[in-house]
Write a structure and sequence with these properties.
By secondary structure, this protein is an alpha+beta fold. The chain has four domains: 304 residues, D-Amino Acid Oxidase, subunit A, domain 2 (D-Amino Acid Oxidase, Chain A, domain 2); 88 residues, Alpha-Beta Plaits (2-Layer Sandwich), CATH 3.30.70; 80 residues, Gyrase A, domain 2 (2-Layer Sandwich), CATH 3.30.1360.120; 132 residues, Aminomethyltransferase beta-barrel domains (Elongation Factor Tu (Ef-tu), domain 3), CATH 2.40.30.110. Helices cover 25% and strands 28% of the residues. It contains 18 helices and 39 strands. The strands form eight sheets. Strands 4, 5, 6, 13, 14, 15, 16, 17 and 18 form a nine-stranded mixed β-sheet that branches. Strand 15 and strand 16 form a beta hairpin. Helix 2 packs across helix 8 and helix 11 crosses helix 16. The longest helix has 21 residues. The protein is globular. The N and C termini lie far apart (80 Å). The model has no long low-confidence stretch (mean pLDDT 96). The structure holds flavin-adenine dinucleotide (FAD). The site of flavin-adenine dinucleotide has 40 residues, from helix 1, strand 9, strand 13, strand 18 and helix 8. Flavin-adenine dinucleotide binds next to helix 1, strand 9, strand 13, strand 18 and helix 8.
């Protein structure tokens, strides 16, 4: 009997790959039984059926590791729960390094894994050979072993999840295509479907787009941004090899290769440096369990290295040469969450060839997020709100994904920049900065000067885990900011105007600090969630009785806009993104006043323009708003200049700057200065999971103010006491570097990761921030311990402080 498609559901999940099946399973587990999953063809018939099935738990950050570990644990249990043979075997995995730089990277990952409670061990080439006798280890310089990693049968994992969902009441239907997502009053109201000649609609408030490589087009129909693009992804499987027994999964990233033993055959898969984007003109309507044509020429270089690495491949016949499409995203991270453009439109998609290992955890996290209305923990790395609308551009995507596939196995050096699809968003100062030696990096599509090369110096990054070629440039810029004056182009800041009769009341409800200040004042604040976690970190300038100007990081703009818009109740407010309207030129350092007075007739004294205020000024022959704030901990101004006047104002400042030794500074220096001052960075040190008091930002929370979001949670935390605190560390040895995710040890025991790090050129050592558990402890107890930081297996003594090590009394900003 064929089942009829329901006409109403609490949620409709689009797509029956591993992602959709996992979301259905986890929603059903939370008691959402009235849900429907629609698959256009058959379950797993898109990408899932042909995955290699590697389940590696070690990811780049704590929460991504948490999710992968959840998947691995779930897949081990799933067979017993559903009676579907998932093929999940914990055979372990080995990653080998062929260079010292790679060894450093994998050893760092091992330190990180220990901080996240993953079982991991550094092993010698000899031990690799013992575990993997077929391997040529002559040039292996190091390796790590994760005994609880594994491999599985991907299609059956999806089928088991689908069965588990059905067992809990979910409806899962095949050969039913979603043809349209309907909206009413700015939110999802239902879907239309087609099954052969039959058509119909389902009324629902919630859709979850799990449509894999179809997700971008589906999203586009509703104006939802889902920038992803398929690439061809290759592996081969040999004929049975006599005597081959169970082996761990093996990764040789320096040769872009992974190996898996399965049923006496070897699989060799590739993440080649320049990939082949696929499906630019759309995907054939009848695509179902399809594969793409072989391309032996493309695979050849990987195979050659493979035969050298595992000589038996040279004699084993090839049973299957497989090429299948998979979605890739511009930053190699997947998409979870609710679309900022459309309420009720959720997604779990864009998996960059780790969809099997990711979907278990991602499905769990998304289901909780849908259920609670707030992410269960920090998911910013994969949050769809990081995607920029321009990234839907297909030419941009096509070029970018040709790079991101290979980056999975490239060296993940700190500060590594993308090589493709660059230059899309530029400040009006771009050419000026370029002419003066700027070396650019990219964030949210914005080109930003990261550092300035000296005359004659190579304008390229030379990546390394040690000091990179710009270290001394950064030191000069950093010391100029501390002792003289530096100029930063911060045009990439997100800028939002909130205006209208109720603007003050609205922001009072959303922000933890007091927004009812006199026009002219600038307030540093956070927007909190109901748990007291930090949703947004920003400065708010009151322009007039009814107009406010919000400044947020460029990378979080869409998230912040979405948060604001979602929370408009019946207040009369208009929220406008004015990012493109103004450039931001920051002059920072003890000589900043002298400099600005040379280009402006206005009065910049503490009496007229004290810290935390703005004034409109004449500058050169133009106008600007001078905001007296700083992210580097010095006297300084952020000048907001109408875009068309920005180049003129820059020229005026640059000319006047010659007299005071003005130095052009890049984003690396902004970061090294802010970390000395222990200013927090959203996404690293502070996230929606981090309580504002534990983050040390209680000074910006006015609990005396009634009715702001998160107030009750803050009061509860005050009452209960802090369970952890954000601490600043300085390594005593001036040599090693901190980036982030190194392991913090308190009295010899790992307590968590460094959340952000950089070099303190003034303080003379690497500086990092990180949380330390402190249940029932006083500040003195926390500081009374001894601290070390583990970097790639080596431990370094660290000094700890709860106050900023640089200018703890904030005297310099008020000079
Ligand atoms: C060669 C290869 C090897 C891989 N190896 C691994 C590995 O070892 N480990 C790992 O973790 N990952 C691996 N992956 C990646 C993994 O396979 C994918 O990330 C994962 O399968 C993606 O699942 P999905 O559910 O997002 O997409 P899909 O499996 O493609 O599912 C999307 C589904 O949506 C359906 N759909 C689309 N539009 C509609 C519509 N309008 N209405 C209804 N249904 C619709 C499609 O028919 C499709 O079935 C590999 C991928 C490839 C190509």
């Amino acid at each position: 009997m064929t089942k009829t498609v329901p006409t109403k559901a609490r949620a409709v999940i689009i797509g029956g790959g591993v992602s959709g099946c996992s979301v259905a399973y986890h929603l059903a587990k939370l008691g959402w039984t009235d849900i429907v999953l629609l698959e256009r063809k058959q379950l797993t018939s898109g990408t899932t059926w042909h995955a290699a099935g590697l389940i590696g738990q070690l990811r780049a950050s704590q929460n991504m590791t948490r999710l992968a570990k959840y998947s691995a644990d779930l897949y081990v249990k799933l067979e017993a729960e559903t009676d579907v043979a998932t093929g999940m075997r914990q055979v372990g995995s080995i990653t080998v390094a062929l260079t010292e730089e790679r060894k450093h990277e994998i050893y760092r990952q091992a330190s990180l894994a220990r901080a996240f409670d993953v079982d991991v061990r550094e092993i010698s080439p000899r031990e690799v050979k013992e575990m993997y006798p077929h391997l040529n280890v002559s040039d292996v310089v190091g390796a790590v072993h994760l005994p609880l990693d594994g491999q599985c049968d991907p299609a059956n994992i999806a089928m088991a999840l689908a069965k588990g969902a059905r067992q809990r009441g979910a409806t899962i239907m095949e050969n039913v295509k979603v043809t349209k997502v309907h909206t009413r009053n700015g939110r999802v109201s239902g879907v239309s479907w087609a099954q052969g000649e039959d058509q119909g609609t389902i009324e629902t408030d919630i859709v979850v787009n799990c449509a894999g490589m179809w997700a971008r087009e589906l999203g586009r129909q509703n104006g939802v941004t889902i920038p992803l693009h398929a690439c061809e992804h290759f592996y081969l499987v040999t004929e049975p090899i006599p005597g081959l027994s169970r082996l761990p999964v093996l990764r040789v990233p320096d040769e872009c290769a992974y190996y898996k033993e399965d049923a006496g055959k070897m699989m060799l898969g590739a993440f080649e440096p320049v990939a082949k984007p696929w499906g630019m003109d759309g995907i054939r309507e009848d695509f179902c369990f399809d594969q793409l044509p072989e391309d032996m020429e493309h695979f050849e270089p990987i195979l050659e290295m493979g035969v050298n690495r595992m000589p038996m491949l040279g004699t084993a016949g090839i049973h299957t040469f497989f090429n299948g499409p998979e979605s890739f995203t511009p930053d190699d991270r997947y998409y979870l969450g609710e679309a900022p453009e459309l309420a009720g439109y959720w997604m779990a998609t864009g998996y960059n060839s780790i969809g099997i290992v990711s979907s278990g955890g991602a499905g769990m996290a998304l289901a909780q997020w849908i259920n609670d209305g707030e992410a269960p923990f920090d998911l910013w790395e994969v949050d769809i709100r990081r995607a920029q609308p321009f990234q839907k551009n297909r030419r941009y995507l096509k070029e970018r994904v040709s790079e991101t596939l290979g980056l999975l196995y490239a060296d993940h050096f700190p500060y590594r920049q993308m090589a493709t699809s660059r230059g899309v968003r530029r400040s009006p100062l771009h050419e000026h900065l370029k002419a003066r030696g700027a070396v650019f990096g990219e964030v949210a599509g914005w080109e930003r000067a990261n550092w300035f090369a000296r005359d004659g110096q190579e304008r390229e990054y030379r990546y390394s885990w040690k000091r990179q070629n710009w270290f001394d440039n950064q030191r000069e810029e950093h010391l100029a900011v501390r002792n003289g004056v530096g100029l930063f182009d911060m045009t990439s800041f997100g800028k939002i105007r909130v205006e209208g009769r109720d603007a003050c009341a609205f922001l009072q409800r959303l922000c933890a600090n007091d927004m009812d200040v006199a026009p002219g004042r600038i307030v540093y604040t956070q927007m909190l969630n109901q748990r007291g976690g930090i949703e947004s970190d920003l400065t708010v300038t009151r322009l007039s009785e009814t107009a406010y100007f919000l400044v947020v990081p460029g990378a979080t703009l869409r998230r912040d806009l979405a948060w604001l818009r979602k929370h408009v109740a019946d207040e009369f407010v208009v929220i406008t993104d004015v990012t493109a309207a103004e450039a931001v030129i920051c002059v920072m350092g003890p000589e900043a006043r002298k400099l600005i007075q040379n280009v402006s007739p206005n009065d910049f004294s503490n009496e007229v323009n004290p810290f935390g205020t703005f004034q409109e000024i004449e500058i050169g022959m133009g106008l600007a708003r001078a905001h007296r704030v700083t992210y580097v901990g010095e006297l300084g101004w952020e000048l907001y200049v109408s875009t068309e006047q920005a180049a003129h104002v820059f020229e005026a400042i640059a000319e006047a700057g010659a007299d005071v030794g003005l130095k052009l500074c890049g984003l690396h220096t902004l970061d090294s200065c802010r970390i000395e001052k222990a200013f927090r960075h959203f996404g690293h040190d502070i996230t929606d999971e981090d309580n504002v008091l534990e983050a040390g930002l209680g000074f910006a929370v006015k609990t005396s103010k009634a009715g702001f979001i998160g107030r009750d949670a803050v009061l509860r935390k005050k009452e209960a006491g802090l369970s952890r605190r954000l601490v600043q560390f300085r390594l005593k040895d001036p040599q090693p570097l901190l980036f982030h995710n190194e392991a913090i040890l308190r009295d010899g025991r790992i307590v968590g990761p460094i959340t952000s790090g950089n070099y303190g050129h003034h303080l003379g050592g690497a500086i990092g921030l990180g949380y330390v558990p402190c249940e029932g402890e006083s500040e003195a107890d926390v500081l009374g311990s001894s601290y070390e930081v583990e970097i790639a297996g080596e431990r370094f003594a660290a000094e700890a402080s709860l106050k900023p090590m640089y200018d703890p009394k904030a005297e310099r900003v008020k000079m």
